[in-house]
Amino acid sequence: SWSVFEDQILYQLLVFLQPPPRHSFRLELYSGTHLPERCSNIRVVLECTCLRNTGNIPCFVHPSKTNGMAQHSPLLQNLCTGSYLDVEEIACWVQNSVQTAWEFLPQWQHWQLTLLPSSHSCRMLLNSSSDIQLSAVLVFAVEQGSP
Q: Domain of life, per the record (predicted)?
C-alpha cells in the first residue's frame, strides 16, 4: 500500500519469506491469551535429503558418511533463535543488506538513504535533492500453508 502525507510518500510493502532449499516453515499455533510480540511461533524444520537424488548436497538432518557430522544450517545460525525465526535478526539482516546494496544502485547519487530504527521491520527514509521524501516499511510475513 502507499499513502501521501504532506510532502512525504509512505510505502508499506509486505515481504513474504520463503524457506531456502532443504528447509520448511511450520506455524505453531500460539495458545496464550495475547498475540506474541515476535514471530517466535514460526519454526524452521530441516528436511532430510538422504533419499533424494541431490548429488553431493549434504543432508542437514543426518551425519555424512565421510566425516560423521551433520551439516549446519546458515538460516538457523543467522536468522533464528533456537529453531524459530527471529524477526529482529531478520530485520537487522535486511537492513544491512539494503545498506550494502544501496551504493550499487544507479539512484544512490540522487537520493540519500537513511535506515530508521526498527526491530520488527525494515524502515527506510529516502530524501531527494528536490525535497521529496519517500518512506518505505518492509513488513515480513510467512504464507500460511507454504511448503
A: Eukaryota
